[in-house]
Amino acid sequence: MPSTRNTRRFCSLLISFALLLGLCACSLPPGKSSCTLFAMDTYMSLTAYGENAEAGLEAAADTLRSLDKLLEPETEGSAVYRLNHGETVQDEAVLSMLHTCEAVFEASGGAFDPTVYPIVKVWGFVDAQYRVPTEAEIQTLLECVDFAQVTVTNTGAGLPDGMALNFGAVAKGYAAQHAADAMRAAGVESGILSLGGNVQTLGEKPSGGLWEIAVQDPFDESVSVGTLSVGGGTAVITSGSYRRFFEQDGKTYHHIFDPRSGYPCDSDLRSVTVVCQDGALADALSTALFVLGEEAALRLQAELDTFELLLITEDGRIVLTGGLSDVFTPRKDSPYVLSYPQ
Ligand code: AMP
Ligand code: MG
């Protein structure tokens, strides 16, 4: 019947049209571009959305590579190498990080101290030649650990003879923030950067709304403990003993040191996640609070009130500060007990 044939034709035309619309709709969302790179001894992944995404990624990657060069303490000629070899350094990035370090050194009562670098080195965490140093070696090196002796002004910085530092505890947060700025300057309004699990967001998600940031389970790195929903510009930075360690004679030695003892700190925390609008500060704080432990970390958070915390304790609890109560979604089958400090 012709009418049936016409109806069929009309239907197939409609379906083709719908399919075409569907195809167009698929290519309509803003372009997403991603890239990975290795810098600062870390695998980094960068994602940008929108028509300037490619240019944004290039600008961000350039920023990360040049900061890597500048801050590499063992490369002759780098700003940190020169600082560690008696020169006065005026570089803007170095001065900015030193100001952050100074603030966190003071706030943490010295638990955070970048001049612990010779200790980090003698334990083999710089060249991956891990070893347990002798007590005498540690005591000798501790004589030159004291950030209070670093001179930092707005125009230059210098160290006393024999002292050396590195920005391992603050550089990734600083770099991520500046790479995000470079993306924005290249015309990107939405993007996300992960520097070895330290996350910096830029703007809103391309579809609008909050970013969902997974927090790794420090007892089983293949899964997350849940997600944090955060707004644009927020940094989510984690420190933990599980990140880098070696074993000798049945004992585990990790990479976050107590600057007073010269040994890996004996923390009651397994990981510290800091949520903050300032990436460099978040990074320095995550290391500092790991050294300080649960009680002092929560006290400092309440006192400063400029950041939020997700702590995972050695005894398997997740402790969240008030600002994260509506922000954290635990994994469905999570074995953790959630608690909120009083
Ligand atoms: P993060 O992964 O941000 O916690 O930084 C850890 C890195 O910071 C280590 O690999 C060391 O290079 C350095 N570091 C270790 N302990 C301290 C400390 N107490 N204060 C400052 N930097 C530290
Ligand atoms: Mg840190």
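^ magnesium ion complex. The pocket of magnesium ion (ligand 2) is lined by residues 169-170, 239, 283-284, 286-287 (CB under 6 Å). The two ends are 78 Å apart (CA to CA).
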